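Recap from last week: sequence in, structure out.
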Amino acid sequence: MKYLCLVYSDEKLLHSLPESPRDEECLAYAQSVQSSGRMIAAEALQPVDTATTVRVRNGKTSYFDGPFAETKEQLAGFYLVEADDREQALEIAAKIPAARVGCVEVRPVRELEVD
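Predicted structure tokens:
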């Protein structure tokens, strides 16, 4: 089953705390998940101030600079992994280096059946 591991952190703190992961550590972990055959995709995102939110209401499209919600933590990146079950997905997520300074939301991917 596919699971999406959404990595959240406070951008202002992500790289400034003593326990903050370095890029090399993050890349090494991503490569280890890739080597295990569990990685489908993983990407780090540009800073939240580069985001644009799109909404369509009553046929009218609106664009807003920035993320959808005001929060203390922002979406920093993601891992899309293949795991045998939820427990295995949680094990993978717990080892993501950024989890030390933020959090990782783990959600199963909804498989759509198209006729």
